[in-house]
Specification:
The protein has 373 residues and is an alpha/beta fold. It has helices spanning 129-142, 156-167, 186-200, 217-231, 234-241, 264-279, 282-293, 304-309, 328-337, 355-358, 360-371, and strands spanning 4-5, 19-27, 33-44, 54-58, 82-83, 88-89, 94-98, 150-154, 174-178, 314-320, 344-347. Residues 59-60, 62-64, 66, 77, 246, 264, 267-268, 271-272, 275, 279, 354, 357-358 line the site of acetyl coenzyme *A (ACO). Its EC number is 2.3.1.31.
């Protein structure tokens, strides 16, 4: 099979811009296959002669490949962590971020054309995190990267990093698993189901075949609201919004139910929903959410300890102390099951799960000492 990756840039001119690689057909864990898979990716810095300086940064659920600015003006989602002189110093390291299969930031996903020329839509198969890892490994080969200096990510990005370390132990020297455990728990699956059902039950969903028509925007916005509540702590929401009404709106005054005014927190969640709808495909949201539901590094590999005993990477595990979605206890469970004595770094942030995105200063200092000194 021929794998075509666009040539690596010779200078920093293309840093932080999207490139594409055709990695061929992908056999899927749950059965079936995807023909002609394309991966979208961004890179920063230069791969050195022996390809020993490559770092893979995996995005979270609705993240894109745009980790940092590079040659573009658009700020990245881990901007402070990656760049010239930053903890992940792009003068030293070659950084790459890949859009997960099923996503909507350039990789093959439900909105991509199937072989018959129509969007995959309802026909898009279940692609597990393990399947995506397999696809990403082919891109690494095409780029000449035999082993990563480090693979890291937060939330689903952390799950993707962990899956890399367990699937290709010899190819991951260091692995940072941030704000996620070794598997999706019953509660995480439960929250995820509510989100996917919100989309599926939108009258415009049409079983996923809505391209060319009206997208299930209400469902996607509701899914985001549910998710966003889990990404933030009760303390933060209380502190920011309390019981305040949104501007002139009157939550306690309504002639009929439909006219009730909103509390501030409702308006905030409405805004979060609207914002996601502008940048995300509903089918991709389902595909990736279901991939995250599949997260279980031990699946088919025996006990958790047995599954992790195959890893040879040095591990960095971190959790946000106020995370009420991926509880720090799950990070402790993961660390305890890993070979050796792996500490759990604590990110102190009252915000909740999203602390892995907002408290980059703390994370950066912890990671610098551990992996990038
Ligand atoms: C191409 C791309 O966009 S790729 C994007 C990649 N994104 C990711 O990887 C996800 C990572 N990012 C995130 O999840 C988030 O951006 C975070 C966690 C970093 C920050 O969270 P945010 O939601 O941006 O911050 P916060 O909770 O403070 O919300 C701010 C927004 O709420 C709005 N807001 C605040 N209070 C209210 C209210 N009462 N009513 C309505 N809106 C409100 C603000 O005006 C602001 O709006 P804006 O984002 O349009 O400027
Ligand atoms: N806010 C993040 C959290 C997911 O872990 C996202 O949207 O991807």
């Amino acid at each position: 099979m021929t794998i075509t990756a666009t040539a690596l840039p010779k200078s920093g001119e293309e840093d932080g811009t999207v490139k594409y690689a055709a990695i061929g057909p992908l056999d899927l864990e749950a059965g079936g296959f995807l023909p002609d898979v394309v991966l979208a990716y961004e890179t920063w810095g230069q791969l050195n002669a022996d390809a020993s300086n490559a770092v893979l940064i995996q995005h979270a659920l609705t993240g894109s490949t745009h980790v940092a600015r590079g040659a573009t003006d658009e700020e990245g989602w881990w901007e402070q962590l990656v760049g010239p002189g930053a903890t992940i110093d792009t003068n030293r390291f070659f950084v790459i971020s890949i859009n997960i299969v099923g996503g909507c930031y350039g990789s093959t996903g439900p909105s991509s054309e199937a072989p018959d020329g129509r969007p995959w839509g309802s026909r898009f198969p279940l692609v597990t995190l393990r399947d995506s890892t397999e696809a990403e490994a082919r891109l690494a080969e095409a780029l000449g990267i035999e082993a990563w200096h480090a693979v890291l990510g937060g939330s689903m990005g952390g799950a993707r990093a962990l899956e890399w370390a367990a699937t290709f132990p010899e190819r991951v020297k260091r692995c940072a698993v941030i704000s996620v455990g070794a598997y999706s728990t019953a509660e995480q699956i439960a929250f995820a189901q509510a989100q996917t059902l919100a989309i599926r039950q939108d009258p415009n969903f049409n079983n996923g075949d809505y391209y060319g028509g009206t997208a299930p925007e209400h469902g996607l916005a509701l899914a985001r609201r549910i998710a966003h509540i889990t990404y933030r702590s009760a303390l933060e929401l209380d502190f920011r919004f309390g019981r305040e009404a949104q501007h002139q709106e009157k939550p306690l005054a309504a002639a009929v139910l439909g006219e009730r005014g909103r509390y501030q927190v409702e308006s905030y969640l409405d805004h979060q929903g609207t914002k996601l709808v502008r940048r995300f495909d509903a089918n991709s949201y389902i595909a990736i959410t279901e991939a995250l539901m599949s997260h279980d590094v031990a699946r088919g590999r025996g006990s958790l300890e047995a599954a992790l005993s195959r890893t040879t990477a040095e591990f960095f595990v971190a959790a946000v102390d106020s995370d009420r979605l991926y509880f720090p206890a799950q990070s402790r469970e993961l660390a305890a099951a890993l070979p050796g004595d792996v500490p759990v770094h604590v990110i102190e942030a009252p915000i909740g799960h999203d602390g892995f995105l907002t408290e980059i200063g703390q994370l950066s200092a912890q990671l610098r000492g551990a992996f990038f000194a």
